[in-house]
Amino acid sequence: MAIRIFVSSTWEDLEPERKAIENYLHKMQNTDFVGMEHFGSRPDTPRAVSLREVNHSNIYIGILAHRYGSGITEEEYRRAREVDIPCLIYFKDEEEPVKPKYVDTDPVKKAKLDALKSEIQSGNENLTISFFKNPDQLAAMVVTDLQPFLNLTVAVKSEKRYCCYVDVSGQHADSRHFIVAAIILEQHCCYALGNKLESMERTTGKGVRKWRNTHVSRKKHYLSLLREIPELKDGIFFMSFEEAERYEELTSELLIKAIERKTTAEYQISISIDGLRKRERRAVSKSLSSKELKWKGLQGEQNQSSAILRLADAVVGLIKDRNDNRPYTIECFDLISHCFVELE
Q1: Are residues 103 and 164 in the same domain?
Q2: Distance from CA of residue 99 to its chain's centroid?
Q3: How far is CA 63 from CA 18, 90, 150, in A?
Q4: Mind listing the pLDDT tens digit for each residue in 52-96?
Q5: Comparing C-alpha atoms, which of 246, 267, 270, 264 is closest to residue 182?
Q6: Which of 122, 155, 188 is the C-terminal boundary of a domain?
Q7: pLDDT 10s per residue in the chain (344 long)?
Q8: SS3 content of the chain, % helix, strand, coil (to 5)
Q9: What is the CATH number of the domain that holds 220?
Q10: pTM above 0.70?
Q11: What is the DSSP secondary-structure string of 307-342?
Q12: Nearest-CA neighbor of 295 among 277, 276, 271?
């Protein structure tokens, strides 16, 4: 299995550096260059695509020079820290000549860039910092710096890495049922599955709509295609509750049971929960930690940012419709019942 290496930087000023790294990585065995150059046209925003790609990568490379840009580079760095992957950071030597157009003069952007650099240089574990003068030197440094991490990855390959995507429905007081669904996948499957689900969204016309806003004919078409995806077998977990007041506690209950059911003895899992707020994240984190689960990142996202989170939204929508005795669910649920594990 190839090691996915995410390369993060502003674009126009550091294009030669990115190209040099990509060329060197292509000469190495079992490494994949992951960068904006190859994201292509997708229904999600560039920010959402980038952050999802960081989630699915094994190593993060950050290159900083004299531009802050749109801020996506900083967000990518922070996401890499959240999911706790090794980070290799490279600063362009301040003494090297640079074209004026590649230097931020906006005082707000300059202040943000200076603050980010200062924070990174203050030191953190799982973080390597170096300085470079030109693209070739940078690429050679990257290859050298990567080697210990690649060796380490090979050494711990028996440890499985999982990603978990969670959505809920009915967390309001007037709802009849509170439903939690979690999709748990091995990390190496997530990238391909996300692309496959995006293709299904286009084919069926469902797009990025919420399940409740999707026409029944499109729901049926979308669900019929899910049965052809082997990665989902016994990978979708759900629970239905008659109350919603204990939102964080019930979400944690589903997560704990699903993770214990799905994972092997040696594992790490990163968790994305749709719409999770800071207060809720603290409560869920506390519950997971009390059970000594091996989770390495818990983040809140909007389901617009991920086709797999949108699938989780479809799952809770389908379960809700089934609980409400919607006719289409009888046939459709049977079609994909091999994917579902109802927990008690």
Answers
A1: no
A2: 35
A3: 9, 5, 20
A4: 888 888 899 999 999 999 999 999 999 898 888 889 999 999 989
A5: 270
A6: 155
A7: 678 899 999 999 999 999 999 998 888 877 889 988 887 666 677 888 888 888 888 899 999 999 999 999 999 999 898 888 889 999 999 989 999 999 999 999 999 999 999 999 886 666 889 999 999 999 999 999 988 877 665 554 556 788 899 998 865 545 567 899 999 998 878 878 888 999 999 999 999 999 999 999 999 999 999 988 988 998 999 998 876 667 788 888 899 899 888 887 678 888 888 878 878 888 888 888 877 777 777 777 665 678 899 999 999 999 999 988 999 998 888 889 899 999 98
A8: 50, 20, 30
A9: 3.30.420.10
A10: no
A11: HHHHHHHHHHHHHHHHHTT-THHHHHHHHTGGGEEE
A12: 271
- Domain that residue 104 falls in: 3-155
Closest CA to 88 of 163, 31, 37: 31
The answer to whether residues 172 and 68 belong to one domain is no
Exposure string over 51-60, b if 16+ CB within 10 A, otherwise e:
bbbbbbbbbb
- Hunting for tokens 């550096």 — which residue is that? 17
Do 262 and 294 touch, CB atoms closer than 8 A?
no
How many residues are present in the chain?
Answer: 344
Encoded tokens for 217:
């004919």
Residue with tokens 């989902």: 232
